[in-house]
Amino acid sequence: MLAFVGNVNADGVVHHKLSHSIRSRFLRFVPLDWNPSGWVGLRVEVYGCAYKSDVADFDGRSSLLYRFNQKSMSTVKDVISLRFKSRQAEGVLLHGEGQRGNYITLELHRARLALYLNLDDTRLRFSSGRVAVTLSSLLDDQHWHSVLIERFNKQVNLTVDTHTQHFRTKGEGDSLEVDYELSFGGIPLPGKPGTFLRKNFHGCMENLYYNGINIIDLAKRRKPQIYSGNVTFSCSEPQLVSTTFLSSSSSFLSLPATLSASGGFAVRFQFRTWNPDGLLLSTRLIGGVSLKRAQKQHLAVSTGHRVNDGLWHSASLSSRGLQVTMTLDNEPSSTMELGDHMEAGDSLYFGGCPSLNVSGCENPTLAFQGCMRLFSINSQPMDLNLVHQGQLGDYKELQFDTCSIHDRCLPNFCEHGGQCSQSWSCFYCDCSGTGYTGATCHNSIYEASCEAYRLTGSSSGYFSIDPDGSGLLGPTQVYCNMTENKVWTVVTHNSTDPVRVQGSTLQNPYIMKFNYSASPEQLMALVSGSEQCQQEVMYSCRKSRLFNTRDGSPLSWWVDQGGERRTYWGGFLPGVQQCSCSLEENCMDMNYFCNCDADTDSWSNDTGVLSYKEHLPVSEIVIGDTNRTGSEALYRIGPLRCYGDKSVWNAASFYQESSYLHFPTLQAELSADISFYFKTSAPSGVFLENVGLKDFIRVELSSPFAVTFSFDVGNGPVVLAIKSHVPLNDRQWHYVRAERSVKEASLQVDQLPLRFLEAPSEGHLRLRLNSQLFVGRTGLIERAKMTPGVSAGCPGHCSGSSSLCHNSGRCIEKNSGYVCDCSQSAYGGPSCKEEVSVSFNRESSVTYTFQEPFSVMQNRSFQASSVYRGNSRARESMAFIFMTTQSPAMLLTVSTFSQQYIAVILARNGRDTSRIITVGFNPLNSQFNPACVVVYREYPDLIDKDMNLKYSLSSDTEFISIKSLTLGKVTVDTMDEEVMQAGSKGFIGCLSSVQFNHMAPLKAALLNRASSLVSVRGHLVESNCGALADSTIFHSQSGEEFGRGRGPLRNASQSNYAVIGGVVSAVVFISLCVVVVMTRFLYQHRQTRRDASIKEKEHRTNLETAYRREAAYRAEPAYRTEFRLHDSHSSTLNDNREYYI
């Protein structure tokens, strides 16, 4: 908006020249001040550059035909431009076709511009294969619109006003071949000018150019190559006065009902809207005593389908005799029978009712929001200019002489393929099936990486990831391998099996292109966002060389992600024609840099791993030396494997108030989302800021209790703030996410309630920034290494509010992340969530001996009660998961050196439908009888660990010096009779995730099989029965939702049969393996005995060291390295073998 100084008298002229030219459809002048000594008046003249206008008026029956000088015109480049205005939604603007099937058609369809173009030699115009490119909307608004078509070969640009769409034509043709002529304004039949196949154009065209030829100028000069049937050269189209109903609650137009000579009434009008509901017309009927139904009932008649499409629709309502007829557009009329003759009241109300209760106006729905025109009451047209001047009818909240309808879905602000729909004041996005959510389908519903899925607690499996988050790329499915400390993302391709190659030469090589499960753009985003990527290349050869040529040119190579040829092979560095054996200096012939270059008759191997991630993945492999006798090659390109996510632990520390990081300008014109974690002790500070000339965006800690998100896109500053009831500068990690789109803005801090604000329906939309972005964005670590006052990384990941390590796992800080120490947990895996499970049979048992003082091992006769009295414990805690159909069954036994014990037994309580757990205590003082704790639940097949029952025991019931813990069968005779009976029957079923105090005995037995602290009897098989138990619970038909640690028993027999079947299969397999192993075992037995004395000394030293570690643990928890369990194949512990000192 510009301000100009006007004249100070009636005759003076003041000129103002603009520094830059502007193009505008309308100009609005707002007087800011009047001359205090003169009269009120305004006179303005606008002048501009010279403009030539050649106009043609088409009346719906006329056309312009431009005939070529030759029979046909074939072009590879076309430029067509024109301007038009129309009040109709249908009509052909341009058409040309050739006998071989080429054609071009430009037409208005439903007030949108459609371009049909075919360069092929097949007639597809009226088949299902025809493709139309549509652009813009509401082009029947009687305003001038500019059109530009640019084509070069297959590439086409279509521009309507300020909107441009780029596309490529289908087929193999590059040229457009048109026979005889081009027609403008319609498609005439051959030999019959003026007879059209489609609805012709009704409106005006201006400055119509075809490949530099001014068509209208030729027609005006009556050139022989132009046929101008019924075309006039001035735009005489009458202007139709429209009115806009602005408010959905108070807009209305009242017009008087004129008398009808034939009786009854007849009303006609046109309307257009986006809203699905609204009152069009209401009036009181006079003259009827009763209708065909009871007196206060309503009769209804309806017609039409979807009319809130933004197009003009004609509606008419009339009464003749005892019938009321309603017609919409050209559809069949609907009628309703009346009981008597009816006439309209004194006034007809369009769009709504007055705020006062006016007799004769009822509005059962919202007021109409949209445009109306061409009012006719009893065949008499209504002049809206008289209404505007106050000489006819009444109105409120209307705009005259304009239709202010806007297409809010043009351009489509719904991202990632979201479907846009709209009402009069706003638009909506349907994100179904897109993989995104939010007001504009901006936020991906998938995590950005496998590393992010691991942080949510997920385990290995197939996942959809979105490598660029809310960017243009969509999600893709990958396999996430989380069984190691590193989380691997695996992307497969179409040829992962070994391939044998023969008969290829350098002139006719073998070529294999790899198609991955992700697009090249998605692969590039995945690789660039990962810390490291690699791809194994297995290559074996026989008389097939890689690089051994006289001129040094390679015989085989592979192509990287950018299409570049790479001649280094797996395991070597880029840029050198060598293989991994050259780097490791172990090639079979040191005169060559690859084993295959030795060119021997025997098979050679040049397998290696490509790890230069900027070149990955392999997109193509070329093999060119397998055409000689006996020459062949065998290769296999493995999947792309990447680990690490640069954005997960992308941290920097700011230790000076003046410290900052800067990045390129934030590209966030229409939408942006910002998320990060922070921890600080400062009371305030700016997290992120980017500014333009007037626009800006900022996220800051405005006070110790508040985070503020503010921005301005030209409509004034917008501020969203979230206040916390606890300080946010508490040196703990806090999460912030801010999002801004053309529809709304939102702010989230930790788990506090989300704050959001809708954007205004009118106003500026684009956030225009031009400076650098300061602080926060991807790449903090790299930029922090070069910035004074900033350091890479930010320790303290484990101090956040969310638990990163589960099931008593310890979180260990790293500079750029964390690791979980699961050594004190009964679970394994990167997050201590993988269950450790074993299947038992009746004779199976695992005994874990707790670490003892070294002095006691020297003298077993020492009084245990005096030695261990200082090590007594008043509390024991245990937890485990089990699944069995056996009862009674011995689950767990803990014993001490003083013959105390704890036994957990599964026993019947006298009812066949219930199970109980009996926990027995035998105190040191023998005068007390064994105490029993019974925990049961009436539900027949479930033992619930969440049932919190508390029982009081004797005050001196303490456990003194725990000796061992046994899972499964127990044969010791120092226990109660009931315990002995259950212990002798052992346990058949599955035990999983056994935890006793800080120890995980079952996990220790599996991962430390050679330890002297572990004694295994019977047949044990590692299994996933713990996971199966959780799966059974999840799929239970009971409809209840259970958490981890609840074991089902209802279907346990079926699960147990599967477990036993697996055990039997494993036993047969192990038995065969034992025969082979025993031969080698006997051979090495003699040498083993020779070293026995040395190993015994080492056992004593190790045990003493272990005791010291145990004592140190009691004072302060120690860090232990976690041994990982790989259960891809079931492993069996040795049968009837005991480890001891």
Automatic annotation (TrEMBL):
Kindly list the places in or outside the cell where this protein is found, as annotated in its UniProt entry. Answer: Membrane
Example GO CC term: the record gives: membrane
Highest taxon in the source lineage = Eukaryota
User: Which Pfam family would be a valid example here?
Assistant: Laminin_G_2
Domain (Laminin G) ranges: 55-235, 242-403, 650-832
| CDD domains found in the cross-reference section | EGF_CA, LamG
* Domain F5/8 type C, residue spans: 1-49
| Keywords recorded for this protein, A-Z | Disulfide bond, EGF-like domain, Membrane, Repeat, Signal, Transmembrane, Transmembrane helix
Question: Transmembrane residues, as ranges?
Answer: 1057-1083
Domain Fibrinogen C-terminal spans what residues?
Answer: 441-493
Q: What region holds the EGF-like domain?
A: 405-442, 795-833
The record describes its membrane topology as: Single-pass type I membrane protein
The family assignment reads: Belongs to the neurexin family.
Q: What name does this protein carry?
A: Contactin-associated protein-like 5
The species this protein belongs to is Oncorhynchus tshawytscha
Q: Top-down, what is the taxonomic lineage of the species of origin?
A: Eukaryota, Metazoa, Chordata, Craniata, Vertebrata
